Amino acid sequence: MSTAPVEPPQRLVSALSGDPDSPVRKWLAALPTVVQQRLDAWDLTLERVQAPGGRGSLVALVRQQDGTPAALKFPVPGQASAREGAALAAWDGWGAVRLLRSDETDGALLLERLHGAVSLRSLPEAKALLEAAGTVRRLWVAPAEGHPFETLAGRTEEAVAALETTGALVPAAGPLVDEARELRRALPAGSTEQVLLHGAFRQGKVLAGERVPWLAVGPAPVVGERAYDLAGLVLDRFEDLVAGSGGAATARRRVARLADSLEVERDRLRAWTLYLAVAAGVRESAAGDRRHGELLLEFATWL
């Protein structure tokens, strides 16, 4: 139990600084009280709120009643976060952080404690890609009958609409946006593969652990084909490729290496990566970060 004050980290507050009457802002305002109530209900002792933390959740480092360290997470409400606990329960610690407890009323997730400051991004690129591939492979399991996860086809409809809206704000990217939009419509229908995916996989989502060296965190789970998860890995550290010489050839080699090592079709991995790069590029450009957006769009042209 803890009586220490709980304050959301500034990064989370800044990320959610929209309409004060929106449900997310109301959630943020109530968060200190909700966290304290959960600490009391589960007999947890607060050590500290993790800072700077992320833009999609509050994570508090806590001790359980028996002194065992753990992490108490409150994801920002939304469809993806509502399914995070279900995915972690399905994996049961295999390749991912272990879920110890959860509560549907406030979305709280009590997780095993990992080394939050040490991700695969701390490793040299070749080693990081190798470890990432080994980790994500473990997550690809058949979803249980009646599972609660959305499919890639379902996620596609909303994503295509968003791409059309943001793409209109970046006219120069028109041809790339058209190609990405068509790929996104066609790709889910072109595969019968239905496995549980992390849904937001990248090197920064794999943290050092005690049980095993590396464990995935922060899924946005979805059911579909494995190439979707690998596309995030192709995009990892893309800025380094854009800044260096021979970046286009290196990007294509990365696609081939990841696809071949995990028995995924190269063309489908290339297509999913192109879509994600374009979607992120126009989103960043429309939000005002033109430099980052243009780099993503340049990377997409290499594919």
Automatic annotation (TrEMBL):
Name of this protein: Kinase
UniProt keyword annotations, A-Z: Kinase, Transferase
Decide whether keyword Nucleotide-binding is in the record.
no
Using the UniProt annotation, give all residue ranges assigned to the region (Disordered): 1-20
- GO MF terms on file? kinase activity; phosphotransferase activity, alcohol group as acceptor
Which BP terms from GO are recorded? secondary metabolic process
InterPro entries, A to Z: Kinase-like_dom_sf, NH2Glyco/OHUrea_AB-resist_kin
Lineage runs: Bacteria, Bacillati, Actinomycetota, Actinomycetes, Kitasatosporales
A Pfam family it matches: APH_6_hur
Which portions of this protein are annotated as coiled-coil regions?
A: none
